[in-house]
Amino acid sequence: MSRIMNDKLRGYAMFAAVSALLLVVAPLALPGFRLDELAKYLCFAIAALGIGLAWGQGGMLTLGQGVFFGLGGYAMGMYLKLHDAGGDLPDFMVWSGVEELPALWAPFRNPVIALAAVVVLPVTVAALLGALVFRQRVRGAYFAILSQALAAAFVILLVGQQGLTGGTNGLTNFYDFFGFELEAESTQRGLYFVTAVVLGVLYLLARQLVKSRFGRLLIAVRDGEDRVRFLGYNPATVKTITFAISAGMAGLAGALFVPVAGIISPSLLGVVPSLELVVAVAIGGRYALAGAILGAIVMNYGKTAFSEEWAGGWLYLQGALFIGVMTLAPKGAIGVYQQIKDAVARRRSVPAPHQEKSPASLKEEVPA
Amino acid sequence: MSEQGKAPGPAEELLRIRGLQVVFDGFRALDGVDLTVGKGELRFLIGPNGAGKTTLIDVITGLTRPAAGSVKFGGVELVGRKEHKIVRLGIGRTFQTSVVFEELTVVENLDLAASFRRPLRSLLRQRRGVDEVVAQALETIGLTELADRPAGVLSHGQRQWLEIGMLLAQRPKLLLLDEPVAGMSRDERERTGRLLTEIAKDHTVIVVEHDMEFLRRYASQVTVLHEGKVLVEGDVAQVSADPRVQEVYLGRSGKEAAA
């Protein structure tokens, strides 16, 4: 009992420490543009949290989270573009010779609709896809390939519709963010705090979900989908709900990324970025939500830091890390940490004799 | 030894199978099976390998679709329904190889089995304490002391009991057990037998079993399947005395049949 209390307290302490680090230490210690970089990593961490939920807890290897990241990002980008254009056509449309605002864009004039779409769009797409795919019992590698194909197709669609989506360049050159000048350092600082808080809140919500009965059910679906049916649950429903939640997180991440980075474009959400995020989650430790977040932050930081020194080298390091983790520590960095912790705990405490006996002595008893 | 105190007479009918046919790539796994199980019965299903016992259970629980025939449970047709819907009607089953969720604790496994009737909103909340049904199931299967251990640490026998416990926690009207004592030690078999007797007091149970000794000790009503058909039905004495049964099944281990 006391061990459970200890674990709980340690969890709270860890959360408080990380919060303090992100909300107090980082803003004080980092120069403006580094803080911007960190804000981007936190956006990726939000998307990674969704992957942790879908893959780590639910066993759905989703290689196309970029699609949902993109849906959220473009929804936000479209609103900002229209807002900046003030009644006129967005600049890139003029360049592409578009003369009238496409009907698809019209609803995004309204900030409320645009902000709702940031979550509603990816959730709806994921729910529809999930309902179709999971009901047909598509899973494992087949689901992974399907999700990746979706990311590839999405990028082709975006690039092909130059006048509608800005093509390869995507949507960029934003100036005003809900009345704040985006270039201003104070705005960027504010956005950093918003992103960090959103990440914290989503983490707590996801954690609550994992601990609930639904979370237990999700693990059961991951480890024995066919058995779950015979417990009276429909695994397709459980998976669809979880997949939709993870898509909503990716959408939010994408929407936050747009004002933080000042751009959303196909190259940010295709197959490669989607894969990189999954690799980051694997390296951080997919079975723990914190592992997913840790992985996303560290790997994206590593990518920036490494690329500054040796452009191109990161790809090899990333690949090597991934292979290393998969073969040596499939539970990722968090898994290694827990292994060390357990080993230390085992060494310290001599097992209580009655605890060791209980399973054996039980065999003597008669059931019923 | 089979003094279950159960009247084999025409009790209220719970399960009614008629003309069931299952074909796998041209092989007739079930070839016109008729079977009726009354409420409160403890029915053993035996037969040589490939007789179609597990297939029959698979059809009842929706895992396999029959080519023809009907399975009525309390008057409701089961053929064509999905597995989880059939569970929701009140039919639970175990598998030959027990599948428990190793990452979850014993009590979480049972709680999950007990919770499928909860609305989604209540599933989103954390479990507080242990439900009455779950506590009872824990007690019945004798795993109360291991409640908070992950199911992964259980022995083979304990896993089978946990599965039976999960079945009980579902509060089904009909339990289907597929070879519950396969691979168990003599001790474990004994415990499972007593567990079975206990459960059969207030449940309808169908048991697929290979183990003849176990059958003789705990069975009352027996249905013998052979090559996808029902060969004989009756109590243990009748069945083991039947020359057809001795030929196709017991005849293969003649000494045992004579015992």
Would you summarize the structure shown here?
The complex is a heterodimer of chains A (368) and B (259). By secondary structure, chain A is mostly helical.
- Which strand-content bin applies to the residues of chain B? 15-25%
Query: What is the overall shape of chain A?
Result: globular
Mean pLDDT of chain B: 87
Order of helices and strands of chain A: HHHHHHHEEEHHHEHHHHH
Kindly, what is the distance between the CA atoms of the first and last residues of chain A, rounded to a whole number of angstroms? 27 Å
Please give the oligomerization state of what you see.
heterodimer
User: For the record, what CATH class of chain B applies?
Assistant: Alpha Beta
Number of domains of chain B: 1
- Compute the number of helices of chain B: 11
Question: What sequence of helices (H) and strands (E) makes up the elements of chain B?
Answer: EEEHEEHEHHHHEHEHEEHHH
Shape of chain B: globular
Rg calc of chain A: 23 Å
The largest sheet of chain B has its strands arranged as 6-7-8-3-9-10
Largest interface pair: A-B, 28 and 45 residues
Number of strands of chain B: 10
Mean pLDDT of chain A: 90
Architecture overview:
The complex is a heterodimer of chains A (368) and B (259). With 368 residues, chain A is mainly alpha-helical. Chain A is built from 15 helices and 4 strands. In chain A, α2 crosses α11, α2 packs across α12 and α3 crosses α10. The longest helix of chain A is centred in the first third of the chain and has 28 residues. Chain B is α/β, with parallel strands linked by helices and 259 residues long. Chain B has a single domain, classed as Rossmann fold. The N terminus and C terminus of chain B are likely disordered. Classes of the chains: A mainly alpha (368), B alpha/beta (259). The interface between A and B is large, with 28 and 45 residues.
